UniProtKB/TrEMBL annotation:
<feature type="transmembrane region" description="Helical">
    <location>
        <begin position="110"/>
        <end position="132"/>
    </location>
</feature>
<feature type="transmembrane region" description="Helical">
    <location>
        <begin position="354"/>
        <end position="372"/>
    </location>
</feature>
<dbReference type="InterPro" id="IPR036259">
    <property type="entry name" value="MFS_trans_sf"/>
</dbReference>
<feature type="transmembrane region" description="Helical">
    <location>
        <begin position="80"/>
        <end position="104"/>
    </location>
</feature>
<feature type="compositionally biased region" description="Polar residues">
    <location>
        <begin position="306"/>
        <end position="316"/>
    </location>
</feature>
<dbReference type="GO" id="GO:0015125">
    <property type="term" value="F:bile acid transmembrane transporter activity"/>
</dbReference>
<feature type="transmembrane region" description="Helical">
    <location>
        <begin position="220"/>
        <end position="250"/>
    </location>
</feature>
<dbReference type="GO" id="GO:0015347">
    <property type="term" value="F:sodium-independent organic anion transmembrane transporter activity"/>
</dbReference>
<dbReference type="GO" id="GO:0006811">
    <property type="term" value="P:monoatomic ion transport"/>
</dbReference>
<keyword id="KW-0325">Glycoprotein</keyword>
<dbReference type="InterPro" id="IPR036058">
    <property type="entry name" value="Kazal_dom_sf"/>
</dbReference>
<dbReference type="InterPro" id="IPR020846">
    <property type="entry name" value="MFS_dom"/>
</dbReference>
<feature type="transmembrane region" description="Helical">
    <location>
        <begin position="40"/>
        <end position="59"/>
    </location>
</feature>
<feature type="domain" description="Kazal-like">
    <location>
        <begin position="469"/>
        <end position="524"/>
    </location>
</feature>
<keyword id="KW-0812">Transmembrane</keyword>
<feature type="transmembrane region" description="Helical">
    <location>
        <begin position="640"/>
        <end position="663"/>
    </location>
</feature>
<feature type="transmembrane region" description="Helical">
    <location>
        <begin position="549"/>
        <end position="576"/>
    </location>
</feature>
């Protein structure tokens, strides 16, 4: 009986224990499922956001790759191209504050999806002028056009040209003037880019903060680094697409390509710039689809459930107490949010670290945006490369270095658990060494090409100041030439002449691309008058040292791009961790607004104006007036382009030093003690009481242990 009673006791005790074990098992199982759901949800959003970053970066970089193509197609100067490029930022400016402030309280994924649709519509609009304007017309003298009529380039007597041919030519010009006088098709490109800017607005502030709200904090830097790395892959494909389209003639599919008398190496060549925009628009549509199926909120990670402010939406969300298992239930009150707008703005501008970092970023982005916008033009004009090769080199060599640099910055932040102060140091160091390397590019330029009447005289001496009068010389005084023409030929003496007429050529053979000119009086005056003077279509190649200099330029450019990019992710983390959590979207919105207004809009314009001052030969529009630049002063272009970039970069470094100084000055010895107790400080506020709202914690202790900086 005793044994039986003991067995019964043991039996009942086991039965009483089993329900506890099951409940424990269920709790562990539910926690595991919740963790998997959280991680899975944030990773799906991360993948969707990365694809959107890829799409917007592809279309944006493709625009950069077509800058010179658009300039030639619409016959406009670099300054006006800068306005077109800056219209993207104007689109951001129109709605950035509303989206970043009110969008954070609404359905963020769906707002991003709407933005993708608007962005794709703008991209399609950019390509529309190709289907409404006439065919592209390039400057070619009658002797180089496929024709059975043989016309001497040097029109000593206008009667050499058949009257019917002159009348037809003039009639075509007049008809073209009537059509062009009332149309400025580049406006559609500007409006399309403006629409692209509007659509892109919600992606950065809402996407980045969504990740920062629902990701485990120690993974936030790595996730942001991943998104930005994928965003850099977009420009790789964008520039490669630009390289491919630049080799295709602009009117491919509309004209007989055999009738085209210029090649992609010609300065007047315009590629199929519109084709890439159609492809980019389709990609933008596809990128926006996943966001219509993503949830408004994700479950919080276990490590962040104790923090009431780990999500910025917690300030504006009322939870349903009757059903705690459901996700957040938000009741948006527009009036209350609007009332909180000015205090929030005052809070941000009262943060010295935020303001100084904002100033540093504005000036640095002026430098970088101007440099990136006109880098293809700089390579083409400085090193004599084609648009296709330039875009290929930038996309395949330069952009991957930027991607690797951004990813390295995020990886360094995670691996070494760098503090806010360390992030500021890393950002400053990358900028300093990057611009120091950029300084060496001054020594890696090419000399001006020898162009008779522009860089050298017809007698081989250096050019005088008034180049237009120097276009005419005794050797071509008997020819009826126009100084506005640009149909360059290369003499056998290695000198480029603006046209066969100005070279004094009396005869020609062949047609189109294979035309050869003979008896050129200006060519024989330079060297060996007894030799038969001849010339071929197209400008002469740059000097023998130029290919070597181009190789050196590529090496330094890649290293510089990597060095500058390493500080990208630390800068983002510094920005996010030095403000109160519920203001993250608003702070990023103000930051983006300032970059758009004070860097994205003006930088391409004044860089373009400065580059225009280095032009030696302007093209002429069919109806009169100045067109696009045909030839630049290489030395002046190098000093203007690199000089502006370095001056702005140097000023931004001084502001970065100020950020580091404020961080050091406001840090206290008690920070490490506070970090051991799990307390957090906010950067740049006046007192501890102002820094915390219901125990606000900016960074999880497991992420930055023993290196806290309370300001």
């Amino acid at each position: 009986m005793e044994i039986s009673s003991k067995e019964n006791t043991q039996f009942f005790s086991n039965n009483t224990v089993l329900p506890v074990d099951r409940s424990s098992f269920k709790s562990e199982s539910s926690a595991s499922k919740e963790k998997q759901s959280c991680c899975g949800g944030i990773k799906i959003f991360l993948g969707a956001l990365s694809f959107v970053y890829f799409a917007k970066a592809l279309s944006g970089s493709y625009l950069k790759s077509t800058i010179t193509q658009i300039e030639r197609r619409f016959d406009i100067p670099s300054s006006l191209v800068g306005v077109i490029d800056g219209s993207f930022e104007i689109g951001n400016l129109l709605i950035i504050i509303l989206v970043s402030y009110f969008g954070a309280k609404l359905h963020r994924p769906r707002i991003i999806g709407v933005g993708c649709l608007i962005m794709s519509a703008g991209t399609f609009l950019i390509a529309m002028p190709q289907f409404f304007m006439g065919r592209y017309r390039y400057e070619r003298l009658p002797s180089t056009i496929n024709s059975t009529v043989s016309i001497s380039p040097c029109l000593q007597d206008k009667s050499q040209t058949p009257l019917s041919a002159l009348e037809k030519s003039q009639a075509k010009i007049n008809a073209g003037c009537e059509k062009e006088a009332g149309s400025s098709m580049w406006i559609y490109v500007l409006l399309g880019n403006l629409l692209r800017g509007i659509g892109e607005t919600p992606i950065q502030p809402l996407g980045i903060t969504y990740i920062d709200d629902y990701a485990i904090e120690e993974n936030a830097a790595l996730y942001i680094g991943c998104v930005q790395t994928v965003a850099i892959i977009g420009p790789i494909f964008g520039f490669l697409l630009g390289s491919l389209c630049a080799k295709l003639y602009v009117d491919i599919g509309f004209v007989d390509l055999d009738s085209v008398t210029i090649t992609h190496k010609d300065v007047q060549w315009v590629g199929a710039w519109w084709l890439g925009y159609l492809i980019a628009g389709v990609i933008s549509v596809l990128a926006g689809i996943p966001f219509w199926f993503l949830p408004k909120h994700l479950p919080k990670p276990e490590s962040r459930k104790g923090s009431s402010t780990s999500s910025e939406q917690s300030k504006f969300i009322t939870e349903d107490n009757k059903d705690r298992h459901k996700s957040y239930q938000q009741q948006v009150k527009i009036a209350e949010m609007a009332k909180d707008f000015l205090p929030s703005l005052k809070n941000l501008f009262g943060n010295p670290v935020y303001i100084l970092y904002l100033c540093a970023s504005i000036i640095q982005f002026n430098s970088l945006i101007g440099m990136v916008t006109y880098k293809p033009k700089y390579i083409e004009q400085q090193y004599g490369q084609t648009s296709s090769k330039t875009n290929f080199v930038i996309g395949l060599i330069n952009i991957p270095a930027v991607a690797f640099g951004i990813f390295s910055g995020g990886l360094i932040m995670k691996k070494f658990r760098i503090s806010v102060l360390g992030a500021a140091k890393l950002s400053l160091g990358s900028s300093f060494f990057g611009y120091l390397l950029l300084l060496s590019l001054f020594a890696m330029g090419c000399e001006n090409s020898d162009v008779a009447g522009l860089t050298v005289s017809y007698h081989g001496t250096k050019q005088m100041t008034d180049y237009e009068q120097a276009l005419f010389s005794e050797c071509n005084s008997g020819c009826a030439c126009s100084k506005n023409d640009w149909d360059p030929i290369c003499g056998e003496n290695g000198v480029t002449y603006i046209s066969a007429c100005l070279a004094g050529c009396q005869a020609s053979s062949g047609s189109g691309k294979n035309t050869v000119f003979f008896n050129c009086s200006c060519v024989e005056t330079l060297e060996s008058p007894s030799r038969s003077s001849s010339a071929v279509v197209g400008p002469c190649q740059k000097g023998n040292e130029c290919p070597k200099m181009f190789l050196y330029f590529l090496v330094i450019s890649v290293i510089t791009s990597y060095t500058l990019s390493v500080g990208g992710t630390p800068g983002y983390i510094l920005l996010l961790r030095c403000i109160k959590p519920h203001l993250k979207s608003f702070a990023l919105g103000i930051y983006t607004l300032a970059i758009r207004v004070l860097a994205g809009i003006p930088a391409p314009v004044y860089f373009g104006v400065a580059i225009d001052t280095t032009c030696l030969k302007w093209g002429s529009k069919r109806c009169g007036g100045r067109g696009a630049c045909r030839f630049y002063n290489s030395s002046a272009l190098r000093y203007v382009y690199l000089g502006l970039t370095l001056v702005l970069g140097t000023v931004s470094i001084f502001f970065s030093v100020a950020v580091l100084w404020v961080l050091r000055k406001r840090s206290s010895p008690q920070d490490e003690t506070l970090s051991a107790n799990g307390e957090r400080g906010a950067c740049g506020t006046k007192s501890r009481k102002d820094n915390f709202v219901n125990s606000d914690r900016l960074i999880q202790t497991t992420y930055w242990p023993e290196k806290e900086t309370r300001l």
